[in-house]
Amino acid sequence: MPIKIFTALLVQDVQNDFMKEGAMPVVGAESVLEPISKMAATFDRVIATQEFRPENHVVFADNHEGKKPADVIESNGQNVVLTPKFCVEGSVGADFACGLHLPMSRVIAILKGTNPNIDSYSAFLEADRTTQTGLQSYCEDRFVNRIYLCGLSRDGSLIRTALDALHYEHQLYWVSDAVAGLNEKDEAGLELLKLKGVQFVTAQEVIDREIR
């Protein structure tokens, strides 16, 4: 019996605080809004991750006396680069970006960074590489095995998500014109994804895909 392919669009961290007027702007963030909105309308399953950090999160410089953003501290045996407060739980900054239109009746939200002591990058695993976000459990429960990845990347977060998706044996597509925040440090990661067989596609190719 052939294996049924269940497909999802994974939209990572497209939130107000990562827009140009936000607390932690990502270069080019506004450019992903239109292609993601158009793609999302064609999916039965849309997974949208949100950074959703408590006020007392370890990465916030305000929570460490005498420290400022970009300072480095040690926490749980790891170096942590401090930031301004961003994507605080319940704040407008943590909301999906204005201009992002998702079919909310078909969207599952995955919250990241909710533990005040652990940083967050990948959509699958928190920075301790042990704590799960719930994304893989959702994929297993709904038999999702083909993922189209798009969204915003902070400090290589999209690369980390892609590598984790491959670890969990998902068939992965990288939507090149619906991604922002990559820098020169990510070039090696992109090459690694290509070597591992990740297919790089455009938003229009996703919209025109045969398998829904």
The CATH homologous superfamily of the domain at 7-54 and 89-125 and 148-155 is termed Isochorismatase-like
Strand tally is 8
- Broad shape: globular
Biggest beta sheet attributes: 6 strands, parallel
Class of secondary structure makeup: alpha/beta
Strand order of the largest sheet: 5-2-1-6-7-8
CATH fold group of the domain at 7-54 and 89-125 and 148-155:
Rossmann fold
What is the CA–CA distance across the termini?
Answer: 19 Å
**What are the secondary-structure elements, in order, as H or E?**
EHEEEEHEHEHEH
Helical content class: 10-25%
Average pLDDT, all residues: 95
What is the CATH architecture descriptor of the domain at 7-54 and 89-125 and 148-155? 3-Layer(aba) Sandwich
Low confidence ranges? none
Cα gyration radius (Å) = 17 Å
Tell me what portion of residues adopts beta-strand conformation.
15-25%
CATH class category label of the domain at 7-54 and 89-125 and 148-155: Alpha Beta
Tally of helical runs:
5
Could you characterize the architecture of this molecule?
By secondary structure, this protein is α/β, with parallel strands linked by helices. It has a domain of 93 residues: Isochorismatase-like (Rossmann fold, 3-Layer(aba) Sandwich). It is built from five helices and eight strands; from the N terminus they run E-H-E-E-E-E-H-E-H-E-H-E-H. A six-stranded parallel sheet has the order 5-2-1-6-7-8, with helices on both faces. Helix 3 links the parallel strand 6 and strand 7. It is globular, with a radius of gyration of 17 Å. 38% of the residues are buried.
